[in-house]
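Narrative of activities, Objective 1.

The group set out to show that a structural description can be obtained from nothing but a protein's sequence at a throughput compatible with the screening campaign. Below is one input-output pair from the validation batch, recorded exactly as produced.
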Amino acid sequence: MSALDFLRQVALFVLTALAEIVGCYLPWLVLKQGRSPWLLVPALVSLSVFAWLLTLHPTAAGRTYAAYGGIYIAVALAWLRIVDGMKLSGWDVLGACVALLGMAIIVVQPQS
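Output recorded for this entry:
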């Protein structure tokens, strides 16, 4: 796998994670903060985009989900810092690094 192919996959995983997080965050706002139920409409669209994006990944579904998990962890922690405004701990960063290493191992394995 070329470096460009790897970066494309990572970018697709990041978009996929953002679609999932937005699709789950909007209902959270409705249920936990009493925001407008109309936020459920873009949440539904975002979760639909999330499901569609998962189909664009080039490997088998189970391998895609496994590798996606590493990126999801890192993007969720970025969301925690940027959107929720919470400081990340060293443990958060270490955990994300371990998860990203696992994702990279899964993605760059030799193809048979």
